[in-house]
Amino acid sequence: MINIFEVNETNKMIEQENLDVRTITMGISLLDCIDSDLDRLNEKIYNKITTRAKDLVETGEKISMEFGIPIVNKRISVTPIALIGGAACKTPEDFVTIAKTLD
What we know:
The protein is of the alpha+beta class. It has helices at 4-16, 38-52, 56-67, 81-85, 92-102, and strands spanning 21-28, 71-78. The protein has one domain (21-102). The protein has a two-stranded parallel sheet.
């Protein structure tokens, strides 16, 4: 059980020693987005990320409020794009379109 000393120590770390959580990361597999058509591939990637990660910031803020510790960064991590783009990308510029979609 948490005692008052531990609560005070945690509050001190947050206020005086700038305790925070640096980053929370949401991992998203894009393997099911693979497509031989580059436009469809980009559309699938965009739709999956925006659907799955739409509440990431809000969820991070809720966690921060629940535990009283700031969360500095919220980010996503995806399947390596070299694996995803292999079927559709024929030139380096094709991979650039995926990079722009991710951005």
